[in-house]
Design a protein that fits this description.
There is one protein chain. By secondary structure, this protein is α/β, with parallel strands linked by helices. It folds into two domains: about 260 residues, Rossmann fold; about 130 residues, no CATH class. A nine-stranded mixed β-sheet has the order 1-2-4-3-5-6-7-8-11, with helices on both faces. Strand 9 and strand 10 form a beta hairpin. It starts with a helix and ends in a 5-residue tail after the last helix. Its EC number is 3.4.-.-. This is Alpha/beta hydrolase family protein. It is an enzyme of class 3 (hydrolase).
């Protein structure tokens, strides 16, 4: 089986799990897994890498200390520990940055992410303690000045590294690239919205589809740590900070995040906010914020070429800070964003109860029809055809909307089904089903009302129940944005 088909099956399983969890309850927490060492890191010419093992937060972590081969280790040098963004967290994924620091004379520790990390289990606090364990380990390496060891963090690491820095004075400085200033839930919804909008989808649909999917994911426990608020942590950071964002970042809202960092790093003695012109989320060269140009390719993934001047910006800043001359606080002008992020509230038990009631009342018609048939009743009862149409279209719309928004989130909008008139084709079909269901509900309700004096109490209740099911589609449609342009 190819890597692509395996990944697609994993995303499909995640989407199906989300739908099932919405109906039957929250997902159980993932069991902790032991840390597994990845392949040792092999540096390029002129550098050396030494394998290390150290104790993280309840797990054993494996890493490499990277330095320049000719570095005089009889004197002490600054050090830096690199904290991954989201994903598998293999050392090689931050190898380019490690070599930038190592060539500048900064001893660098990279390590494999903890083994229990995954889509269904993310413990930011544990990963912050892992980063601190890395700092403690690097401080003990011969040739490293223990007073000059800091943290570098990418993307998701921008939630983790500030927690570590706020917790321990062993961290001498903090460097971030693409750090989120919003919660994981809000940030991921914004990220997926950008992907959808790039396919020429209308702004309202680009926002509403991932928002609906993220609400379900958070409400069913399929988005761990989604409510993490980085703001209180930033106010506790007391180290010098260099925070950077790519101008074309489409994964983390750069304007909002830079504004939040600048406004809430109030206890840091030196805050430098930099916007990298035409830059990708990870400080890479890009043409549109989505692609990565050049750079190495490992396992089918292109890492991308580092932006010109990005590495020197970091190493020059670290040299100033570790020499006891942190620069005065400064900030670049805030970049533009294609769209603003929006707050996402997790689905509640009430949302799930309404959804379950919707399914129950729609299914009441075919269930009672089977009972009538078993009792020997023949012929279609009054209102049968609009009621049947309502059941079919209503169930298809309800389950279809839930499944589609979960799929888009699990697939991260890589496949939205093509577009017509600024709408994904599946979304257009779901809109059509919703209209048909609502029309069928009106006809069913009117039929029952007009013939109420001729119908038995039981039959009136059947028609009222299935009509109510059609009306319950409205809250679902409003929440998912099906009625927006």
């Amino acid at each position: 089986m190819t890597q692509r088909s395996t990944a697609r099956r994993t995303r499909l399983l995640t989407a199906v799990t989300a739908v099932a969890a919405m109906i039957f309850g929250s997902a159980a927490p993932a069991a902790a897994a032991p840390s597994v060492p990845m392949a040792p890191y092999t540096p390029s010419a002129g550098l050396t890498a030494t394998e290390v093992t150290f104790a993280g937060a309840g797990t054993t972590l494996h890493g490499s200390v990277v330095r320049r081969a000719d570095l005089d280790m009889s004197v002490r040098h600054p050090g830096i520990v690199l904290v991954h963004g989201s994903g598998t967290g293999q050392r090689v994924t931050v190898g380019q940055e490690a070599e930038v620091f190592a060539r500048a004379g900064i001893v660098t520790l990279i390590y494999d992410k903890r083994g229990d990390y995954g889509k269904l289990h993310r413990d930011f606090s544990a990963m912050a303690r892992d980063a601190l364990a890395g700092v403690h380990t690097l401080r003990g390496v011969p040739g490293v000045d223990p007073a000059k060891v800091g943290l570098w963090a990418l993307s998701e690491g921008g939630w983790i590294a500030p927690m570590a820095a706020a917790e321990s004075s062993e961290v001498a400085f903090l460097v971030t690239i693409g750090a989120p200033g919003r919660s994981p839930l809000r940030t991921q919804a914004w990220n997926i919205s950008n992907r959808i909008a790039a396919a020429a989808v209308s702004p309202s649909t680009a926002r509403s589809v991932p928002a609906a999917g993220m609400r379900i994911a958070a409400g069913t426990g399929l988005f761990p740590g989604g409510d993490h608020d980085p703001v209180p942590v930033l106010s506790q950071v007391r180290q010098p900070v260099l925070a950077m964002w790519g101008e074309l970042d489409v994964q983390v809202p750069p304007r909002e995040s830079a504004e939040i960092f600048a406004g809430h790093l109030t206890n840091s003695p030196s805050v430098t906010i930099r916007i990298l012109p035409h830059g990708h989320h990870a400080g890479r060269v890009t043409t549109d914020g989505f692609d990565r140009v050049g750079g190495p390719q490992v396992g089918g993934f292109r890492f991308g070429e580092l932006l010109p001047g990005y590495g020197k910006l970091m190493t020059d800043w670290i040299a100033q800070v570790t020499a006891g001359r942190p620069p005065a606080s400064s900030a670049d002008g805030l970049p533009a964003q294609r769209i603003d992020s929006r707050s996402i509230e997790p689905a509640t038990w009430f949302d799930f109860a309404v959804f379950a009631l919707l399914l129950t009342v729609l299914l009441s018609w075919p269930v009672t029809a089977v009972v009538r048939r078993l009792r020997g009743s023949r012929g279609a009862p009054v209102g049968a055809w609009p009621a049947r149409a309502l059941v079919v279209t209503g169930l298809a719309a309800a389950l279809g909307v839930t499944g589609y928004v979960c799929w888009v989130v699990a697939d991260q909008a890589r496949s939205i089904g093509g577009t017509v008139l600024g709408q994904p084709v599946p979304w257009l079909l779901l809109r059509l089903l919703l209209v048909l269901a609502l029309v069928s509900a009106v006809i069913t309700g009117l039929t029952g009302w007009r013939r109420r004096t001729q119908l038995s109490v039981g039959h009136r209740l059947r028609l009222a129940a299935v009509t109510a099911g059609g009306l319950l589609l409205l809250p679902l449609a409003l929440t998912a944005g099906l009625l927006q342009p």
